[in-house]
Amino acid sequence: MYFIAALFGSLFSIKPDLASAIWPAAGIAVGLCILWGRTILPAIALASLSYYLFGLQAYQPLNWILGVALALSCTLQAYVGYRLVSPILNKRFSLLTPTDILKFFIRLAPISCLISASINIPILIWANILPANNWFFNWVTWWVGDLLGCLLISPAIILITYRSLLNLKQNIVYLLTPSLLIFCLVITAFQFSRVQQSEKQQEIVDKRIKEVEFLIKTRLELYQVYLHSLASFFNNSQQVTQAEFTNFSQQMLNNKIQTQAIEWIKVVENTQIPEFYRQLSSIHGREIKPLKFNPSQSKQIYPIVYAHPKAENSKIIGLDLSSEKLRFNALQKAIDSKEMSLSQPVDLFQGTVQKKGFLLFKAVFDSDKPTATAIGLVALVTNYYDLFNSITYPLLNQVHTDKYQLQVTHPNGTMLFDKNQLSANEHYLSQTSHFNFLDQPWQMKLSISQNSITAQKDWLSWSILAIGTLIAVSVQLFIIWLMSNRNLIARTVKRKTKELNKEKEKAEQATLQKTYFLANMSHELRTPLNAIMGLSDMLKTTELDHTQQDYVRKIRVASKTLLTLISDVLDLSKVETGKIELETERFSLNRLVNRITELFSAQIKQKGLSFQVKYTPLVQDKLLGDEHRLQQVIMNLCSNAIKFTEYGGIQLAITYKTDVNHNDQFWLHIEVTDTGTGIPQDRITSIFDSFTQADPSITRKFGGTGLGLSISQTLIKLMGGTLQCESQLGVGSRFYFDLLLAKSESQNKHLTTTQPLSLQQQAEQQLNGMPVLVAEDNEINQQIIIFQLEQLGANVTLAENGQQAIDKVASNHFPLILMDIQMPVLDGIAATTEILKMENGRNSKIVAMTANVSIQDKKNCFNAGMIEHIPKPFDVDKLHQTIIDVLTK
């Protein structure tokens, strides 16, 4: 375990140094000592020795001594750490206080970890493994690495080993996971930073090799320029003496072009060889004999006539270059191509030690002859070592790069230059360059020590690893500190959660029971209320004196008030449970406005108030939306305005405009203005709360539940608008909202210019003489519905339950069927399903007439095949309008 942890820690060393910013092996060693005491120390020493010998060259005796010294210091550090924290851990782990935990961390790492860093860094510097000038960086890195390794690993070992005693069997993973995740993120960031640093260092190497390549190319181009000048010198002279050649060559050498020799080579026919060597001996003042590398059968020879510097090249005067293949091929190419030619690597004669070099040739031609015959060649002889060393050494020394290796290789595998100043254990970065000179490709590889590249240490990567690991340690410390209170908190949370769940269940059950109660009460109240409102409508058609008519009117007003109250309470229940929904259906805005006008005109007139409706009828008035809910909001606002207005009047204003972004949508602006009592400014916001009036005395004076505005606000919000109020006490109020409604695809083409018929007259036209089946089990409701239908001229047949309705349809066809839902024997839903399957009932139009008024109830009716829904108690106008809509479809 220690050996693996050490290998893992070595991955985080900041190159080119050896110390790592986190050393998990130190934590492993202390943790094992805490668990097993001093008996584990030999094993720790052996594992530590194995690692250090693995990293060093184990076959060298000195490295064995180093390995033993390093291993003993690491073992000593583990033992001291164990001795410092063992008194704290003698307690039961479950009784450790936060103070004990803090002491444990302080003694565990900062103090004990000084041992290994303080002993091992001087040893490694003494052994020349670490540079002495970086001792502080390495010492800090070593100490911090051991410190973080102990703080991160040792507590984790203790928690895992004593998880049963600490009751952490199920939670140990959760305790260690945060620190592990943070550490993984830190490792990722560290690796990223180190890659960035390596890329920067590699960029420096890339820059240096490009600089070397540029200088080499520049030097070679300079060779070409000088050689071309020398060739021109021979072309422009009838005969060049040795003194002239020496002076010209010396000028070239004064420019420090780093060449072994500058040569003039003569082209000599075989027949002229004896005479040529006699003249050559005369020129140099000594006997010169023909010199050859190897026997040659060439028709011509190419002996060296002049060579400068003279002293260093005297022995090559008279040497026939055609007798050596590589030289001959290069000079022959220069003659044939009339361009400069570079020889392959050859062994040079200059100097006491034979070295590799190259010859650069330029042919000189006799321009007086028609064939431009070559009379000779000028050549530069260069030693590869002198060339590359004279370039790289000044350049790299200038940028303080004293540890490097440069290798230049010829394509044939010949090593042209190899200068290595790197030590065996040196960390370095390399780059290879390929370039051509006179069609010869050269390969150059430059390796530079990381110590030479990095002007300062990679503190960024070090800081990321150290600080990030410290954060992980802090998180682990915090988690361990919280562990002491975990059980108590868990039990408290569990108890509180159980209590809250019970209360939540009670609240949900109470809400559900209230919802069921209100729904049932709504149905039960609507049934007798339907009888009261229906009978009052029937009574109103009889001959009554003035007093009786007043009584009937008051019964009707009280009934509508009660119906409103029932609807508001049911709507409030839906708002509280979040079950209030909107329907989207096609409706006529013109008809909605007319209906509201008819409903309130008489009531306002009786109160002695004026009622003004500002509305321009639409030509295309079919919109998509919830007509019932929109009407409910407007009626609530108008009812409130009438209730709180004693003088003056009420105005309903409806304006509209097409949306600028969507031509198929309308913006409706609806406002209701009154001259009533007004609302104090500090109460305007609260009037939209449930059961709230602007003033408590209002309830006593005007009545009401305070639900209308709250429900209206909710409905408008569901439609996408906001109900707003402006009011001045004693002057009046203005309620207004804006809605965006879509146009219906089917639109009226024009408005009727003739006087429209009333709803009752239109219904009479549709029902006159038509057979109508009424399925209703309540006797009073039967009487009311039959009375209303017969008033319209219908031939009514009665069925007291769903089964009777099926039997009636079996023998007769009824174009219109009014169907109650809750009936004995067979309910309205089942009866509707069966009737629509029958031959006589297939084309019947079935309308629900029921006290079941929820959205789900309506959906059930429509799913069964009914095409409309009339809620009880029904409004006569609603009955007439529904009959017209159904029979005209």
UniProtKB/TrEMBL annotation:
<dbReference type="InterPro" id="IPR005467">
    <property type="entry name" value="His_kinase_dom"/>
</dbReference>
<keyword id="KW-1133">Transmembrane helix</keyword>
<feature type="domain" description="CHASE">
    <location>
        <begin position="236"/>
        <end position="418"/>
    </location>
</feature>
<keyword id="KW-0902">Two-component regulatory system</keyword>
<dbReference type="InterPro" id="IPR007895">
    <property type="entry name" value="MASE1"/>
</dbReference>
<dbReference type="InterPro" id="IPR001789">
    <property type="entry name" value="Sig_transdc_resp-reg_receiver"/>
</dbReference>
<feature type="modified residue" description="4-aspartylphosphate">
    <location>
        <position position="820"/>
    </location>
</feature>
<dbReference type="InterPro" id="IPR042240">
    <property type="entry name" value="CHASE_sf"/>
</dbReference>
<dbReference type="InterPro" id="IPR003661">
    <property type="entry name" value="HisK_dim/P_dom"/>
</dbReference>
<dbReference type="Pfam" id="PF00072">
    <property type="entry name" value="Response_reg"/>
</dbReference>
<protein>
    <recommendedName>
        <fullName>histidine kinase</fullName>
        <ecNumber>2.7.13.3</ecNumber>
    </recommendedName>
</protein>
<dbReference type="Pfam" id="PF02518">
    <property type="entry name" value="HATPase_c"/>
</dbReference>
<keyword id="KW-0812">Transmembrane</keyword>
<dbReference type="InterPro" id="IPR006189">
    <property type="entry name" value="CHASE_dom"/>
</dbReference>
<dbReference type="InterPro" id="IPR036097">
    <property type="entry name" value="HisK_dim/P_sf"/>
</dbReference>
<feature type="domain" description="Histidine kinase">
    <location>
        <begin position="520"/>
        <end position="743"/>
    </location>
</feature>
<dbReference type="Pfam" id="PF03924">
    <property type="entry name" value="CHASE"/>
</dbReference>
<dbReference type="Pfam" id="PF05231">
    <property type="entry name" value="MASE1"/>
</dbReference>
<dbReference type="InterPro" id="IPR011006">
    <property type="entry name" value="CheY-like_superfamily"/>
</dbReference>
<feature type="transmembrane region" description="Helical">
    <location>
        <begin position="64"/>
        <end position="85"/>
    </location>
</feature>
<feature type="transmembrane region" description="Helical">
    <location>
        <begin position="139"/>
        <end position="160"/>
    </location>
</feature>
<feature type="transmembrane region" description="Helical">
    <location>
        <begin position="172"/>
        <end position="192"/>
    </location>
</feature>
<keyword id="KW-1003">Cell membrane</keyword>
<keyword id="KW-0472">Membrane</keyword>
<keyword id="KW-0597">Phosphoprotein</keyword>
<dbReference type="InterPro" id="IPR003594">
    <property type="entry name" value="HATPase_dom"/>
</dbReference>
<dbReference type="Pfam" id="PF00512">
    <property type="entry name" value="HisKA"/>
</dbReference>
<feature type="transmembrane region" description="Helical">
    <location>
        <begin position="105"/>
        <end position="127"/>
    </location>
</feature>
<dbReference type="InterPro" id="IPR004358">
    <property type="entry name" value="Sig_transdc_His_kin-like_C"/>
</dbReference>
<feature type="transmembrane region" description="Helical">
    <location>
        <begin position="459"/>
        <end position="482"/>
    </location>
</feature>
<dbReference type="InterPro" id="IPR036890">
    <property type="entry name" value="HATPase_C_sf"/>
</dbReference>
<feature type="transmembrane region" description="Helical">
    <location>
        <begin position="21"/>
        <end position="52"/>
    </location>
</feature>
<feature type="domain" description="Response regulatory">
    <location>
        <begin position="771"/>
        <end position="887"/>
    </location>
</feature>
